[in-house]
Design brief:
With 433 residues, the chain is an alpha/beta fold. Helix content is 43%, strand content 16%. The structure holds nicotinamide-adenine-dinucleotide. The site of nicotinamide-adenine-dinucleotide (NAD) has 19 residues, from loops.
Amino acid sequence: MTYKYIQVPEAGEKIAFENGKLAVPDCPIIPFIEGDGIGPDVWRAARRVIDAAVHKAYAGKRSIAWTEVYAGQKSFDRFANWLPEETLEALKEFTVGIKGPLATPVGGGIRSLNVALRTTLDLFACVRPVRWFKGLPSPVCKPEDVNMVVFRENTEDLYAGIEFESGAPDNRRFLDLLRQEFPAQYAKIRFPDTTGIGIKPVSRQGSQRLVRAAIQWSLDNHRSSVTLVHKGNIMKFTEGAFRSWGYDLAEQEFGERVYTRRQWEATRKEHGEVAANQEEQDAAQAGRLLVKDIIADIAFEATITRAAEFDVLATMNLNGDYLSDALAAQVGGVGIAPGGNINYDTGAAVFEATHGTAPPFANLDKANPSSLILSGELLLRHLGWNEAAGLIVHGLEDTIAARTVTFDLHRLMENATLLGTTAFGDAVIRHMD
Ligand code: NAD
């Protein structure tokens, strides 16, 4: 493919996907989107940290051929296009990429660049690990219990963007159709003349590929449970179906490797008098992964008050969006929480900072680059470069333990040393030793 704006480095090679696995050359071409606002600041630091970790882990035998691709404000200013087609082409061609935060244009332009990237590339799982680093300020008593990974469905649900604005002609036509064809449902709309409509499509395929990815990842990484999060008591055919399809998939595809709470409940009478978390003990004793479920609202309470009971969480799109930020708040906020958008069937992935562009702090060399640094760690693990990924975690752990942090954490800590974005990145590199 020839590109107009993108300069592909001659030194690198393409990542391929063969027999269900990534085939990664020693110098893979990896596209990056710098991002808007604080994006350039945090990307500069993160790139240096990732490069240093790769260099150190493989003594120069491996490296990354970074290639800039464009999206967001920078792209609009240069090419009058928020998301050029060739950016999507490059992310497809080179399989794995990374991005800083992107400004979503207000009152026009594209609806959301992030949603466009995820849906166009069919990156169906948004993976957000949430863990605590010793020394980080936290609003909870036992932050050390927080070690969860959220697998959020990325392509369906209310995020599909099927909406009819109140008063618009399409809204009228849609409501007329509903009135004629589904009068009982129409009668449930309290104020039809002033009602905006949003549609929530949730499919078996979409739900099951997400739950499959969460279970497979949990088995590969020796985790103890997957919790399906849903509001199925109210939304039976979408959220309730997500739960049922999840359990069906777990039992049919993973058989003896998992133990579902649904199986356990079905034989509850045989268990007699049991402890509250008996199924967890039974699953652990049998060496199986426990698959359980929880209603979404209580998930917000339970993941705070009983964090140790949660390990991997499989969620639908909207619930996952809320829950992953709420969990991140327990361990230092979005400035430190990483994310990856992954299609496990093709290997395609875009890793990203989970925070936004934080405009007040742009170009000040102040922002916390940890979210993007840890997204780099996820990227390296996706490539199978675990040694380099481990060095990043080690570097970050020791930097935070030494109480050297950026302003967002500094203001919450006592006796800490304040570092700028670049200096923080340097400290992480130094602590890799
Ligand atoms: P934001 O995350 O940019 O900022 C909220 C606040 O969080 C900031 O004012 C700052 O106090 C803090 N913060 C965020 N990242 C930080 C970091 N790395 N270091 C230190 N502090 C940090 O959210 P917002 O203000 O709601 O959104 C601003 C813009 O970002 C909007 O255009 C929005 O659409 C976009 N956005 C993009 C993404 C993305 O690209 N993934 C995500 C969220 C918001």
